[in-house]
From TrEMBL:
The PB1 domain, residue ranges: 18-98
Pfam families in alphabetical order: PB1
Protein name (database record): Par-6 family cell polarity regulator gamma
Domain of life: Eukaryota
Swiss-Prot/TrEMBL GO biological process terms: centrosome cycle; establishment or maintenance of cell polarity; regulation of cellular localization
Gene (name only): PARD6G
Main location: other
Gene3D superfamilies attached to this UniProt entry: Phosphatidylinositol 3-kinase Catalytic Subunit, Chain A, domain 1
Subcellular location: Cell junction; Cell membrane; Cytoplasm
GO cellular component: anchoring junction; apical plasma membrane; cell cortex; nucleus
Keyword vocabulary terms for this entry: Cell junction, Cell membrane, Cytoplasm, Membrane
Length: 103
């Protein structure tokens, strides 16, 4: 069966100001988006991840996969902004309990 799609049925356009975030803690994944141009601070992002994963009582380290697949830390405003700006379109964030090596 051949179908033609109307404009209302076309795929959603990707908003270039949005960064899709996929975070992983243990076996749990969560997805949400951030504004690429105003992502907030590292502290706000860290607290958001703790809340989303319901791990507010756990000390964790954050890392992200860069465009080459290398795992880099997110632990301050500078490398948080670098992670967000390099996401195209997905930012993969890995959360590990403090004291456990990432990767």
């Amino acid at each position: 069966m051949n179908r033609s799609f109307s404009k209302s049925q076309t795929l959603r356009c990707v908003d270039s100001s949005a960064v899709e975030v996929k975070s992983k803690y243990g076996a749990e994944f969560r997805r949400f988006s951030l504004n690429r141009h105003k992502p907030g601070t590292f502290e706000e992002f860290y607290n958001l991840l703790l809340q989303i994963h319901n791990i507010s009582n756990v000390d964790v380290m954050l890392g992200y996969a860069d465009v080459h697949g290398d795992l880099l830390p997110i632990n301050n405003d500078d490398n948080f902004c670098k992670a967000v700006s390099s996401a195209n379109p997905l930012l993969r964030v890995f959360i590990q309990k403090q004291g456990i090596l990432l990767g």
